[in-house]
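Page 42, continued from yesterday. The earlier attempt failed because a stray header line got pasted into the input along with the sequence. Redoing it now with the clean sequence only.
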Amino acid sequence: MKKVSLVLLVFTISFLYSQPPIGSKSMLHTHSAQTLGKGVVTLYSEMNFFTRATEFVGSQKPANFHAANYWLVVGQTYLSWGILDNLDFIISPRIYQDTHYTNEYNLPGDLFTTLKLGNFAFMERKLNMAGAITMRFPVGEKHNYPFVEYASGSIEYALTGMWSYFFDPYLPDRSLSLHLNLGWWNHNEAGRTVYDYRGKKYDATKNSSELQYAFGLIYPTDMFDYRLEIMGIAFLNEPDEFVYSRENYAYVTPSIRYKALPWLSADLGVDIRISSDKNTTNYDIVAELANPDYNLPNYCSWRVHMGLNLQIWPLTTRKLSSAELEREKFKKRVEFFEKIVQERDRTKDVQEELERLKKEREQAEKELEELKQILQEEK
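This time it went through. Structure tokens are written below.
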């Protein structure tokens, strides 16, 4: 009953861990190159879950075999603050994590922090670029457990690049958009005890690192955003053989965002693993928790995601007066036309530069022809 109550509490107060937390202008795994804007504060609460009952694979079941039900519930929150128009800070505690150790709940789990510099526009503002630095602090009691991404128990860090392409640069939230993320993650575990099972310690012999990638598209409508993502990792330096989740993985994730109010939206999605269920953990070295006879891979074959996104500042619940609405509309129109003028001026400057280069080339060709004539006359 206690376990059921705790799971219900997690469902109620926190809706996953995906890739490094980058703030609310994101999909479930693929993050936008946009930033929140100066003074904006948002809270994103997320959860994912997976479950599977084990079965014995074979003709004769051993006498000591006991069926088990494996589950995974993860809860995490993301508090994002727009420090400047191009700079966001995100702090993200993981508030719950099933580990399948004696202490089944990592409560609290690890803490993530991110500094994101972005919203830099190119190609007539259709292309946006951003970069982020993320750190993971090992606040949780346990690390290195099955079915989830590898956690070394050390202070880990990542560098992530983000690119977003908007088909309508003036209304980016109302047009089809494509998003690409590439990141490098260092687990930074060399010399540390990564795994401790019944008093036996396993120390890492090297630092492992991985390439993280994600690609997503968003098709927005007035009430819903329809989204599709592909995400995964590829280890550049593999962890030691006693580590769980030491394989590369890839998922495809369809999801939908319901935009209930301008300041409130809800997400629902599902991860479907498209990579193999290969398990390369060396069970001759380490006492096993996820017994290979159960035919369970190191990563979930599926995961369901639920999330709730709330803008907590500035408050948008106050009804604007007619004069304030007119001022807001006028301000947006002015900004819109200013951007158009800037783009036209930039285009005009490029055309003038091309004309200047063309004239210089014609002059150079003329001088070269005159030089040829002088050389011929001297002969």
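Notes: The two ends are 107 Å apart (CA to CA).
Reminder to self: strip header lines before submitting.
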